[in-house]
Amino acid sequence: MAPIQSDAFVFFGATGDLANKKIFPALYAMVRRGALNIPVICIARAGRTLDKIKDRARDSIKQSGDFDEATFGKLAALLRYSDGDYSDEATYRKLRDTLGPSKNPIFYLAIPPSMFVTVVGGLQKSGCAQNARVILEKPFGRDLRSAQALDKTLHEVFPEDAIFRIDHYLGKEAVQNILYFRFANSFLEPIWNREYIRDVQITMAENFGVQGRGGFYEEVGAIRDVVQNHLLQVIALLAMDAPAGRDSKTMQAEKLRIIRAMRPIDPKNVVRGQFAGYRDEKGVTKDSQVETFAALRLHIDTWRWADVPFYIRAGKCLPISATEVKVTLRRPPLAIFDPQDKMPQNYFRLRLSPEVVIATGALVKRDGEDMLGESVELTARHNSPSEKSPYERLLGDAIRGDPALFTQDATVEAAWEVIDPVLTGAPAVVEYEPGSWGPAQAADVMQGNDTWQDLQVEKSPPC
Length: 463
Fold this sequence. Notes:
Blueprint: E1 8-12, H1 17-32, E2 40-44, H2 50-64, H3 69-78, E3 79-83, H4 89-99, E4 105-109, H5 116-126, E5 133-137, H6 144-155, E6 163-166, H7 173-184, E7 197-205, H8 214-218, H9 221-239, H10 248-261, E8 270-275, E9 293-298, E10 310-315, E11 322-329, E12 347-353, E13 357-365, E14 373-381, H11 390-400, H12 409-425, E15 430-432
Parallel strand pairs: 1-2, 1-4, 2-3, 4-5, 5-6, 7-10, 8-15
Antiparallel strand pairs: 7-11, 8-9, 9-10, 11-12, 12-13, 13-14
Helix pairs in contact: 1-2, 1-3, 1-11, 4-5, 6-12, 9-10, 9-12, 10-12
């Protein structure tokens, strides 16, 4: 039986940064596509009015791109507003009245995780949570223990199939392309294993700092912010076996199998960095040990991936902003032409952002009489301005009750089991210069002769 569609969208944190940058533009895009026609109830602690909320939504949408007055008018007609203290029971009684005849609302908690328990409790006591769904923003806990405690609280109010843990990275078209590229092309499967793949590298680089959010970043750090969630999920898509079906439960079960097979990371295989100047940011302590850069080596104990190192590198104030996967293949068993140690190895390169690129590195013969080779890259690009944004895709799925692109409780906890040893036993941070590729010590996590492959700025092909 198909899930029941939610009949009201309620989001807490309507005056927050996330609402301004992501949620209002996503709701506008859904209206433009004809995919949203239910009441949108905005809730915040600040004393605002509905008109001020509409003005904020208008400004947000204009800043994000194209603006059409008629489309905004349709969204504005759906907006409602209710405010109050999240700790006050009267706030939820007022919300119950605002919901009116709605029987299957969905609640989006675009608020600090420290308020999750308070708001969920208020929804339960007021009766608002009955037959409802809830969407939560990451991070889902700070470690395994806190994630388990959060899940326990959520399950006292909502069944697991009504909990949607949003990781916007899973809604990216490029990330979905990993899954399609792997299982829609027959040439990959015979070589997608330890016999042919030497190593896998994932780099998530940002060329900016904490952008005035030092206090927030002090509570998170790079490992909690992007490694435990975004990048482990990308590895799961790269490493999973073909699922037996395309339904969400089968897909999620296969990803869970892979994450459970990830060996808990040895702190000796981790280097943490901090860009020079971070401690001068507002809200950052003068002796902060929070990492703005992390490099680590991960292993997956399965028949397919035994002994293949997975390298992760993520950081702020790096040379460019881009996320890329590079899968390097082993060399041929014999060097018939060129000396093996002088020629690049074959590889697959998947650029996930800001553009979508899938490329294959190969060797071809140079012009001339000598049998000498050169490296070339066969490239495919796919960028479409009509693609849905991650938040538009994910909010639409949650309203329809489709959990395919959301993380489940067991998967979240399994990911924390992989990361937990690093949180308690990681080495001290090492300072690095903004604009560099992180501290030189990042090379220490590499195995054998492996080296980091720095990302390049993409160049458009000639017309």
